[in-house]
Design goal:
Elements (H helix, E strand, L loop, with lengths): L11 E3 L6 H10 L4 E5 L3 E5 L4 E5 L4 E6 L24 E3 L12 E5 L22 E6 L13 E5 L12 E5 L4 E5 L11 E4 L4 E3 L13 E5 L4 E9 L2 E9 L4 E4 L12 E5 L4 E9 L2 E9 L4 E3 L13 E5 L4 E9 L4 E9 L4 E4 L12 E5 L4 E8 L3 E8 L4 E4 L8 E2 L2 E5 L4 E9 L4 E9 L6 E6 L8 E2 L2 E5 L4 E9 L4 E8 L4 E4 L12 E5 L4 E8 L5 E8 L4 E4 L14 E3 L4 E3 L1
Parallel strand pairs: 1-6, 7-8
Antiparallel strand pairs: 2-5, 3-4, 4-7, 8-34, 9-33, 10-11, 11-12, 12-13, 14-15, 15-16, 16-17, 18-19, 19-20, 20-21, 22-23, 23-24, 24-25, 26-27, 27-28, 28-29, 30-32, 31-32, 32-33, 35-37, 36-37, 37-38, 38-39, 40-41, 41-42, 42-43, 44-45
C-alpha cells in the first residue's frame, strides 16, 4: 500500500532518527503506543470522531525516540519518530537535531491515508504553545470544510492465501501484530489449519498443538493472558465446548473449572469495562441458546443479567468505544426460522435493547468489527433469504448504510477483523451467494494514496497560550479534553477545555485538580474515564496525585499504591493487559 510521499506534504518534517519520514508514518500506524523522552517534546492525540491527530510542536532539546515492544459439516444453516511541522515550504531532514526549533503551533492532522490514522491515542509527551490551528487535508481540496475521501473496499492479491472457507474464526493478535485465522468449512469438510495475516500476505503455520478441525468456533483476544481465546464450535462428532488459547506460536487446551455448555456460532467479544470476555448465545443439538458467560482469564462464569436478548445464533458482536458497551446485532432462531434485526448493548452488567432510527435489514452470520478510522462499527454482508453484500456503520446511536464505490461479492460467514498494521479492516472468505466457499481477501478503509497540505483554522474560541498541558480524547463525550499547562506569563494553569472538532469550550467542573503542567493523561477503557497523574507546580514541586475525568467533572482517586512524584512521564493504555502503563 502506498504511503504519502514527502514531496507531496506542505510542511517541514525533521527527525533525530536516520530513518526516512515515510517510515515514521508507517510506525505511527503500526505502533499503538509511542513515547518521546527528552526535554520539551511534542504531543499527538488522536480524535477518532473527526479522523484527526492533534500535533503540537515546542522547543525540543535532544529529543530521542523510543517505541515499546509492542459454514460446514453438521451445522444449522437456514436456507518514537520525533518530528515537527511548520506551515512552510517542504523540507525534509531525518538526521538534523531538533535543538534549535522554537515554539510553533497547535496542529490538527487530518488525513484519509489508511496508515496515518491509528486507533489508539498516540501518546507522546506534552502540549505546546498554542498560537494557531492547522489541518492537513486533501491537496486538491485545501480547506477544512472539504470532507475526507469515502472509505471503500479493495480486493487484495496476496502471494499466499488460505483455502476457501466459511465459518472460520479470526482475531487480531497484538503479541505478533498479525491476524490469526483458524478452522472453518470448505463446504465438503472441516478445516483445522492456522493462518496469519501480516498486512501483506497470508502464511500457514505449523503449531505443535492445534484444536481439532471445527466450524463456527468463537474467538477473541484475551488481554488477561495476552492470548487469543477460542471456544466451542462443531465438528463431525457434534457440538464442542472446549477452550483453547493461542500464544503467538502454538495452541494450548485449557481446563477451566467451569465452562459453558457446548455450542457453535456463539457471539464473543472482550469487554474492557469488566476486563473480561463475554460470550452470548449460539446453538447446539439441544436448541438455540440465550445465556451470557464471562471469561476472567482463568475460568468461565455464567452471568444473570436482568434483561437478555432472545436466544439466537449467528449474531454479530463487537465492542464500541464510543459508548463503552458491547453491541450485538441480528442472528437466527432455528426453532421458529426467524431471522433477527434487533440491536442490543451490554454495559458490563445487563443487556438493553436499543431503538435506532435506522437499522440494517434482519440477517445472521454477518461480519462486524470496530473501525478506528471512522470511530464506528462496520457490519458487512450476512444471510437473510439470500446472501447479502451491503455495508453498514454504527455510530453509537444509529445505523447508516454506506455506499462504497467497490464491495466484495455477497456472502455470509466471512471472517473480519481490524488490522492495526495497515489501519484497515480485513475480510476473508465466507459462503458466496451460489453456496460456494470463498477464499478472497478484501480490505475496508480510506483510499490507499492521497496527497495532503495544511489549512489554517480559526476557531471562534481558543484556550490561552500555554505549554506542557495535558490532552487526550474522551470517547465518553466525543471531545478532546485539555487540562492545565504553563501559561505565557509563567504561571501554572488549572483550567479544563474541550475541543469538539470545530471550536474550544472552557468547562466549569465542580472539582478540578490543582494547577500544574507536564502531567500525564490517558483514557482508561476499564472505567470509561480519563486518568491524570502527577505534574509540576510553579514552585517546582513535583506531584503524584491521581485524578479521573468522567466527562463532566474531575475526581481525586486514592489508590493504595502510586508511582513516585514525577512530571513529563509517558502514559498509554496497553490492550494486552487492559492496564494503563506509566
Amino acid at each position: 500500500m502506498a504511503e504519502p510521499q514527502p514531496s507531496k506534504l506542505v510542511m517541514r518534517v525533521r527527525s533525530p532518527s536516520p530513518a526516512p519520514v515515510s517510515r515514521f508514518l508507517q510506525t505511527l500506524a503500526r505502533v499503538p503506543k509511542l513515547a518521546i523522552s527528552g526535554a520539551y517534546p511534542m504531543t499527538a492525540r488522536w480524535n477518532p470522531s473527526l479522523n484527526e491527530v492533534y500535533l503540537v510542536e515546542i522547543k525540543a532539546r535532544n529529543a530521542t525516540y523510543t517505541a515499546p515492544a509492542k459454514s460446514g459439516a453438521n451445522h444449522k444453516r437456514p436456507k518514537r519518530r520525533s518530528f515537527v511541522m511548520r506551515n512552510a515550504a517542504p523540507q525534509y531532514d531525518s538526521r538534523e537535531s531538533l535543538a534549535h526549533l522554537q515554539p510553533a503551533s497547535t496542529s490538527v492532522l487530518r488525513g484519509p491515508h489508511q496508515g496515518l490514522i491509528p486507533k489508539i491515542l498516540v501518546s507522546l509527551l506534552s502540549v505546546a504553545m498554542i498560537t494557531t490551528t492547522l489541518v492537513i487535508a486533501h491537496e486538491a481540496n485545501a480547506n477544512a470544510a472539504n470532507p475526507l475521501p469515502a472509505t471503500t473496499w479493495s480486493q487484495l492479491s496476496p502471494a499466499a492465501s488460505p483455502p476457501a472457507r466459511y465459518g472460520a474464526s479470526m482475531a487480531y493478535d497484538p503479541a505478533t501484530s498479525n491476524l490469526v485465522l483458524f478452522g472453518g468449512s470448505d463446504g465438503s469438510g472441516l478445516l483445522a489449519g492456522t493462518w496469519t495475516w501480516n498486512g501483506a500476505t497470508w502464511k500457514k503455520l505449523s503449531p505443535t498443538t492445534s484444536p481439532p478441525a471445527r466450524y463456527g468456533a468463537s474467538i477473541a483476544y484475551d488481554p488477561a493472558n495476552s492470548n487469543l481465546l477460542l471456544f466451542g464450535g462443531v465438528d463431525s462428532s457434534g457440538d464442542l465446548g472446549d477452550t483453547w488459547s493461542w500464544n503467538g506460536t502454538t495452541w494450548s487446551q485449557l481446563s477451566p473449572a467451569t465452562s459453558p455448555p457446548a455450542r457453535y456460532l456463539a457471539s464473543i467479544a472482550y469487554d474492557p469495562t469488566t476486563a473480561s470476555m463475554v460470550l452470548f448465545g449460539g446453538t447446539s443439538s439441544t436448541g438455540d441458546l440465550g445465556d451470557t458467560w464471562s471469561w476472567n482469564g482463568t475460568t468461565w462464569s455464567q452471568l444473570s443479567p436482568a434483561t437478555s436478548p432472545p436466544a439466537r445464533y449467528g449474531a454479530s458482536i463487537a465492542y464500541d468505544p464510543a459508548t463503552a458497551n458491547l453491541v450485538l446485532f441480528g442472528g437466527y432462531v432455528y426453532s421458529s426460522g426467524s431471522t433477527l434485526g434487533d440491536t442490543w448493548s451490554w454495559n458490563g452488567t445487563t443487556w438493553r435493547q436499543l431503538s435506532p432510527a435506522t437499522s440494517p435489514p434482519a440477517r445472521h452470520d454477518a461480519s462486524i468489527a470496530y473501525d478506528p478510522a471512522t470511530a464506528n462499527l462496520v457490519l458487512f454482508g450476512g444471510y437473510s433469504s439470500n446472501a447479502l453484500g451491503d455495508t453498514w456503520s454504527w455510530n453509537g446511536t444509529t445505523w447508516s448504510q454506506l455506499s462504497p464505490t467497490t464491495s466484495p461479492p455477497v456472502r455470509d460467514g466471512a471472517s473480519m477483523a481490524y488490522d492495526p498494521a495497515t489501519g484497515n479492516m480485513v475480510l476473508f472468505g465466507g459462503l458466496g451467494g451460489s453456496g460456494i466457499a470463498l477464499g478472497d481477501t478484501w480490505t475496508y478503509g480510506y483510499p490507499p494514496s492521497t496527497t495532503y497540505n495544511w489549512v489554517n483554522l480559526s476557531p471562534p474560541t481558543s484556550p490561552p497560550v500555554r505549554d506542557g498541558a495535558s490532552m487526550a480524547y474522551d470517547p465518553a463525550t466525543g471531545d478532546t479534553v485539555l487540562f492545565g499547562g504553563l501559561g505565557g506569563s509563567g504561571s501554572t494553569l488549572g483550567d479544563t477545555w474541550s475541543w469538539n472538532g470545530t471550536t474550544w469550550s472552557q468547562l466549569s467542573p465542580a472539582t478540578s485538580p490543582p494547577a500544574r503542567y507536564l502531567a500525564s493523561i490517558a483514557y482508561d477503557p476499564a472505567t470509561s474515564n480519563l486518568v491524570l497523574f502527577g505534574g509540576l507546580t510553579t514552585s517546582g514541586a513535583t506531584l503524584n496525585d491521581t485524578w479521573s475525568w468522567n466527562g463532566t467533572t474531575w475526581t481525586q482517586l486514592s489508590p493504595t499504591t502510586s508511582p513516585s512524584a514525577r512530571y513529563g512521564a509517558s502514559v498509554a493504555y496497553d490492550p494486552a493487559t487492559a492496564d494503563l502503563v506509566i
